[in-house]
Amino acid sequence: MDGEPASSSERVRRISDALHKLTGRPPVVDRTRTGATRLSVRVVEQPDRTQTLAVLRVLGLGDRFGHSDNARWPHVWVEIADRPDPPRN
Question: What share of residues in the chain are helix, strand, coil (percent, to 5)?
């Protein structure tokens, strides 16, 4: 990326692809009330330490992240705030 900030759509794509590769499940994509993109991935098995650290690194690429354990299934989520695309030269 040559030190230039990535657009929101690029960040969403990269984070989504990485979570899919690490978990074997495509993330569910939603929009929050504030306009951010939220990616959620269902947790179906206890990951090993290496996978856990890799997922945490990917989640850290977002603006906010966390986990939830509801009646349907536990999942991790990451939010990416909308930013204007960087100017193209």
Answer: 30, 25, 45
